[in-house]
Amino acid sequence: MAPVPVARALRLPIIAVMAALALSGCMNTTGPVAIAQPPGDLDSMAYGQTYAAAPVADASGGGAISAMRSAFAASPRGYVAPVPAVYAVPGEPVRYDSGYHLDAGDRLRVVVYGQEGLTNTYAIDAAGAITMPLIGTVPARGRTPAGLASEISAKLRNGFIREPSVAVEIEAYRPFFILGEVAAPGQYPYVPNMTVESAIAIAGGFSPRAKRDSVTLTHTDASGSGRFVVPLGTPIGPGNTVFVTERWF
Asked: Which of 7, 107, 177, 249 is placed for a possible disulfide with 241 were both Cys, Cβ 3.0 to 4.6 Å?
């Protein structure tokens, strides 16, 4: 029975020595010490907690956490305003330049400054002319808008208005035509910047038998008419005729 008390007596000093060594190792640690502090803005914003947190201190005074806090502090509530997207807003229709030649079916806005009775919308008839008060018929086919304005001014100056000021704008272009293997062939209003592909879409798309890689485009201007085989991305103009042929296989 005597050895038992001796063993117990030796156990206590051994435990004390081990504890002292462990404490000594902790005291020699050179790393940062964790310090409890109230929750920062990030913690309260992310978790909504009210108890104290214990973040790891940054020995250099900076680091990722400090950088993140600075970024959120610079932007209220950590929100960065997005850059607004820019969208193209449809405005006035895209007009042809001054070289556009008028023809039957074009609808014009003729403005005679100071003369409300003459300012009006006029359509070019099948004969290629417009009819205005006082001066009657004015040929328009083949003229540019500026050329037609000069012609109207000359007629008004001839015994009606001493110094007329006239402007001519295209209010609506003459229609285009689409024929052949489309769902709804016919005549449609022309929209500026149209292509063959958009014209086919307006006509309901290809029929099941259509040849889809190219079409025949007929263009008519002051110099005459021409017929061309063109791809789908080809621009078309007012009065053009698009013909979609049938495929053979």
From this structure: 177
- Find the distance separating the first CA and the last CA of the chain, reported in whole Å: 112
CATH code, 239? 3.10.560.10
Given a contact cutoff of 8 angstroms between Cβ atoms, the answer to whether 191 and 199 are in contact is: no
Question: The pTM is what?
Answer: 0.56
Q: How far apart are CA 23 and CA 81, in angstroms?
A: 52
Asked whether 124 and 130 are in contact (CB, 8 A), the reply is: yes
pLDDT of residue 93: 38
Give the range of the structural domain holding residue 228, as residue numbers without chain letter.
Answer: 176-244
Of the three residues 147, 172, 197, the one that is the final residue of a domain is 172
How many angstroms separate the Cα of 203 from the Cα of each of 175, 210, 239?
A: 13, 13, 15
Residue 62 included in any domain: no
Strands of 120-123's sheet, edge to edge?
120-123, 107-112, 166-172
Give the mean model confidence (pLDDT) for residues 68-93.
Answer: 36
Query: 229 and 211: one domain?
Result: yes
Helix %, strand %, coil % for the chain, to 5? Answer: 25, 25, 50
Q: Look at residues 172, 200, 222 and tell me which one is the last residue of a structural domain.
A: 172
pLDDT at 89 over 90: no
> Which CATH number covers residue 111?
3.30.1950.10
How high is the pLDDT of residue 72?
Answer: 38
Give the integer Cα–Cα distance in Å for 112 and 119: 5
Calculate what percentage of the chain has a pLDDT beyond 90: 52
